[in-house]
Design a protein that fits this description.
The chain has 353 residues and is an alpha/beta fold. The protein contains ten helices and 18 strands. It has two domains: 5-114, CBS-domain, CATH 3.10.580.10; 123-349, Spore Coat Polysaccharide Biosynthesis Protein SpsA, Chain A (Alpha-Beta Complex). The protein has a seven-stranded mixed beta sheet. GO terms for molecular function: UTP:glucose-1-phosphate uridylyltransferase activity.
Amino acid sequence: MISDWQDLLLRRDDTIRRAIEVIDRGAKRIALVVDEAGRLLGTVTDGDVRRGILRHLGLDAPVAEVMNPQPRVLRPGYGREEALRLLGSAQVLQVPIVGEGGVLVGLETLTDLLKRPRLENPVFLMAGGFGTRLRPLTDDCPKPMLPVGGRPMLEHILQDLVDYGFYRFYISVHYLREKVIQHFQDGSRWGVTIQYVHEDTPLGTAGALGLLPKEAVQRPLIVVNGDIMTRVNYEALLQDHDRHTPAATVCTRQYDFQVPYGVIEHDEQRITDIIEKPVHHFFVSAGIYVLAPQVVHAVEPNVRLDMPDLLKRQIKSGREVRMFPVHEYWLDIGRVGDFELAQRDAPRVIDHG
């Protein structure tokens, strides 16, 4: 996604002359027409302008006369392969990124996709858990290797990260580790490197960080639980972390809980209000983190540690821990019902090519 897409914005009553200026100045061969709320109304390319001139439209005519009101779009959280396929099938060089309510949130271009740099940040995938709540499915298969849409869920996570340019991977293994290692091997099948961190005894949800070689973590580390399905935008996540440089960034998901009764508010024994089945809103951890190198280096090897305790240490010491709300698809596969839901969702949310 390009960073200066907001320089390409037009309103529908701007003139074709203004569109030409924006297209020329932006050097992306496109302008984006939005309304007052930032919703995408259409796109204008140099080809659209030329066709308008052939129809004898004057340069002071409104840009709405030449814009394409139904452009192909991407949704936030798209993968690189998905974007390349869309650009190829539509035979265009640019595609807007549109979020909830039709709001324009970015622009992807073929040029930027093809030159997307490899990201040097290491990635740590947590795949050592027992998957107890998913038994009997996990009796002879580690939870991250359970198939969703025909491939292990851990492979979907890996492929998403590869699509964003990450190539240095570490995978923590313990339960039925040989099945994980046999499938992924050294990562060359995906054009990346994979090294394995062996937990001889379970070390909790953060203890395996202490087994990483310190020299391998000189940039912020991406940590992803191996039992989630998501379309989170890892590029935006890393950009947010790099912009604010906290000790840690925690991806969060809104969780709503409705009390199934009328709730009584009171002052001692005097009822002051009755709220029928109120809904409470919480943010929960989405199992995706970005950790500063010094946070990782401080984790002692072979000492059990859970991620909430590691994060609370940072908060207690006065260091910033930020949240990054995930509005894209996200599912924690902790129970059999979640696994069945993932199977139903797979055709809609999995798109790696």
